[in-house]
Amino acid sequence: MAKMWEGRSSGQTDRIADDFNSSIGFDSRMYRQDILGSIAHAAMLTAQGILGETDGALIKAGLEGILADLESGALQIDPGCEDIHMFVEQELTARIGLPGKKLHTARSRNDQVALDLRMYLRGECDEDRALLEELLMTLLEKAEEYSDAVMPGYTHLQRAQPVLFSQHLMAYAMMFLRDRARLADCRKRINCSPIGACALAGTTYPTDRRFEAAELGFDEICRNSMDAVSDRDFAVEYLACLALISMHLSRFSEELILWSSAEFGFVTIDDAYTTGSSIMPQKKNSDMAELCRGKTGRVYGDLLSLLTTLKGLPLAYNKDMQEDKEPVFDAADTVRACLSVFIPMLATMKVHPERMRAAAQKGFINATDLADYLVGKGAAFRDAYKISGSLVARCIAEDMVLEMVPLEVYREYSPLFDTDVYEAIDLDVCVRKRGSEGGTSPESVAEQMAYVKAQLKEA
Hints:
Blueprint: H1 15-21, H2 24-27, H3 31-47, H4 53-72, H5 84-96, H6 98-101, H7 109-145, E1 150-155, E2 158-164, H8 165-190, E3 192-193, H9 209-215, E4 220-221, H10 225-230, H11 233-259, E5 267-268, H12 287-310, H13 325-347, E6 350-351, H14 353-362, H15 367-376, H16 381-398, H17 407-413, H18 421-424, H19 427-433, H20 442-457
Parallel strand pairs: 3-4
Antiparallel strand pairs: 1-2, 5-6
Helix pairs in contact: 3-4, 3-7, 3-9, 4-5, 7-8, 7-13, 7-20, 8-11, 8-20, 11-12, 11-13, 12-13, 15-16
């Protein structure tokens, strides 16, 4: 196959070199962006008088036909082409002849590929945000369904203080809200048009870069032609957004894995999102959550891969930059798959409030409230802390919980104890008392949920 760069050299390359150089195997997924970009480019060339009206119309019709045939399956992408840009140009020329060869006027593959990638990632940001919104709605639904369920809150993976299960879910909602906002912010920097920068120095043709940018829905043009073709910050930023989403999914997955174990028993993951063992018939493994956790390392690797590729590149374009697309596509596909399975897994999960409450009682997580009770009666905090700790030790030795300790036993430790101690250490009361903004009281959690709903209404 003839090379588009024949002239300076013979254009004859070794077959192995051709395969090594080719990107059609992965950049073909940007066919739609490439064709739409070319339609806008042809429109600009025609509007500027660089192309005649007839040629411009032929090119537009030819490109629209190629797009329709690709999407219907009537046309297959030729894997023998070097990249998606050359496939489209060659197919166009085969269909309309000489005018097809004029399409690349005032354009380089350097600015063309940057354009395609920006358009592609712009769409990815929108799809990712839509999935995050679906996940947030699922979190809200679960939180509302179990709004009064009390569970142990943990530090160091040790039972610490009582919290509402709904507050625990809202903690993840805050993470995913930040992810959604980061993607929106990232999209603003993606949505800057590089087309018209050409190879690196611009062009001698009287082009209108802003016309082309507006045609394609860009907010702005890249202001420096060298930066326009060599910038991949937007791709790194997008990968960083995906890495954070993955990290949040991984943390949540870890909790679901723990909570669904027999040792916790807080939740049951639906059979549709678990697997069994090939040898142990009793097993029910939370494989989907484990895979969400495991694939996080893959997304991290994609981010580091692109950062490493870019770190030593001189201006402007270098062939190394062809290595930008595979990690970006892989991470986008991976996070999309994780979100797509995580949402229904969470939606169908059964919650066991009684197991959560039993764990909260057995964990003595109302011990702080017991100490605060004594402080309220006039004891010094350090004395109250020691008394509370001593009572917990006795409960452990006698297999009791604080709510079961007789009043006469309490009074062995301090005469300040009275019958109202039982109300003070009731788990529901402990939760209700933590009414500080952002805290775990029902009122505070309701405010958090209202905040999430309000954020979801914003664009």
